[in-house]
Amino acid sequence: MSRRVSVIGLGKLGASMAAGIASQGHDVVGVDINQAAVDAVNHGRAPVQETGLDDLIAANHPRLRATRSHAEAILSSDISFVIVPTPSDERGAFKLQYAAYAFREIGRALAGKPDYHTVVLTSTVLPGASRYGLLPILERSSGKRCGEGFGFCYSPEFVALGNVIRDFLSPDFLLIGEYDRRSGDHLEAHYRDIVDNGASAARMSIENAELAKISVNAYVTTKITFANMLAEICDRMPGGDVDVVSNAIGLDTRIGRKYLTGALGYGGPCFPRDNVALGFLASALGAPADLSGTIDRLNRGIAERLVSRLVGTVHPGATIAALGLAYKPRSHVVEESQAIQIVKALVDRKYRVLAFDPLAGHEANQELGGRALVLDSIEACLQDAEVVLIATPDPSFAQLTAADFTRGHTRTVRVVDFWRHLAPALQGAPGIDYIAYGRCGVTPPSEPNPLAELWEDAVAGFTEGA
Ligand SMILES: NC(=O)c1ccc[n+]([C@@H]2O[C@H](COP(=O)([O-])OP(=O)(O)OC[C@H]3O[C@@H](n4cnc5c(N)ncnc54)[C@H](O)[C@@H]3O)[C@@H](O)[C@H]2O)c1
Q1: Is 14 in the pocket of ligand 1 (CB under 6 A)?
Q2: Which atom of ligand 1 is nearest to the CA of 124?
Q3: For FRET with 345, which of 209, 334, 399, 461 sits at 20 to 30 Å CA-CA?
Q4: Domain range spanning residue 32?
Q5: CA-nearest residue, atom 9 of ligand 1
Q6: Distance 87 CA to ligand 1 centre (A)
Q7: What is the pTM of this model?
Q8: Which pLDDT score, from 0 to 100, does residue 36 have?
Q9: Quick check: CB of 99 below 6 Å from ligand 1?
């Protein structure tokens, strides 16, 4: 069954959703306040950078158009997904002004629409924001009561940048916070015609769905931070290997292996802020908020802790290369990137930093404001570097050989690999001092061993002349 859908906000998530819905045979009208985004879609091009989006929009051009008019979109659709920015505010909560503007425009259009319409908020918001912040705007500007003239759901997506289209069309589950049964039924019927994997729907109150959304991301940040703690332990524990430990505990079905690769911290536009927002909510309601705060503090401290350790072993003014600058591989996004934090901490300590990223060079250059030299090839980066940091597990870095690092160098090059991706090529290679972060060599008997020191006194009296 073909459906008429509108998508308000054609950004990283909204444009991908609009194209994904059109690809399932439905008629989609996109709305954006930004004329360039509207023009891009109407010319069959992606308004934002996202894997596969250009092709998907081009292929579904006849079923997908865009406008700046909220009214035009509401009147030519039966259901609207609102996916506008909800930036963090100074409290750690999410600002509602973009959504409020969209809801006022949608309400005005609903005032003149006789047919039932379901409004779905997809943007990330905190509990209570829909019912007490945004729904009153819809009711006031439409002159109608929710549940009578129109329905409402809060239904966020769980997508990763770079995989947005696939994650949207094949979700693990559908999260539906419904104002009433009719709204939820309407939305679920739409999803059934869109998703391609028969994902089950978790239907609940609006507030529980708002909490569930940020809880997923906050839980993942907890898991990543636990794995990173293991990496920091293994990096100091004689004979420690974080991958060996993670592979083992990941076999436990209560834990699982995903997001358990101890390395640098999490970043990007969603994880850090959703975790902080959960802490804000907990504290606003008088519940313990220490967990979110601790995770945020640990995560934000990783770059500084690693740089402090590095500084003790690298001479002042040395040239250090950082490979990988985005918050994750295959991304243009440098928001909350751990690599950028590391580069800034090194520059602050007066090291000369050269940097490279296969996709995010331009964005990184803007973020760094010329403080480090962002180069457009790995070769140029490695040519001068005495120390090389592998800051993201980008697949292209795993192709590098020992010769790529040693070419033109007369002295040993140190490579610090935070993701341990280059171990097969670099471990033990001549001319390279390879350091796999999260792995610690076995301490020779002649050197102090922190593990031995822990236990020697505990068995005093039993080791001599037993
Ligand atoms: N990007 C993701 O992977 C992701 C994942 C999960 C949740 N989210 C959430 O989705 C929401 C949108 O995120 P995004 O990354 O797509 O943002 P974005 O900044 O990439 O895009 C937002 C778009 O909305 C448009 N816009 C703003 N106000 C508007 C209005 N009143 N009417 C119409 N268009 C308007 C902007 O011009 C922009 O094109 C946020 O709440 C975010 O937290 C995003």
Answers
A1: yes
A2: 41
A3: 399
A4: 4-204
A5: 123
A6: 9
A7: 0.94
A8: 97
A9: no
SS (H, E, C) 52-92: CHHHHHHHCHHHEEEECCHHHHHHCCCEEEECCCCCECCCC
- How far apart are the CA of 123 and the centre of ligand 1, in A? 7
Which residue, judged by its Cα, is nearest atom 41 of ligand 1? 123
Could you tell me if 199 and 320 lie in one domain? no
In a domain, 189, yes or no: yes
SS3 category, 181: helix
Which residue from 114, 197, 213 is spatially nearest to 154, judged by alpha carbons? Answer: 213
Q: How far is the CA of 70 from the centre of ligand 1 (A)?
A: 15
Q: Please report where in the chains the tokens 């859908």 appear, as a residue.
A: 5
226-263: pLDDT as tens digits: 999 999 999 999 999 999 999 999 999 999 999 999 99
In a domain, 300, yes or no: no
Question: Could you tell me if the CB of 130 is within 6 A of ligand 1?
Answer: no
Nearest protein Cα to ligand 1, atom 11: 123
CATH at residue 331? 3.40.50.720
206 vs 125: CA distance, rounded Å: 11
Please tell me the total count of domains within the chain.
2
Which residue numbers are catalytic? 270
Per the domain annotation, does 144 fall within a domain? yes
Closest to 354 (Cα-Cα) out of 403, 312, 314, 387:
387
Q: Among the three residues 150, 170, 204, which one is the final residue of a domain in this structure?
A: 204
Intervals of the chain under pLDDT 50: none
**Ligand 1 neighbour 293 (Cβ under 6 A):** no
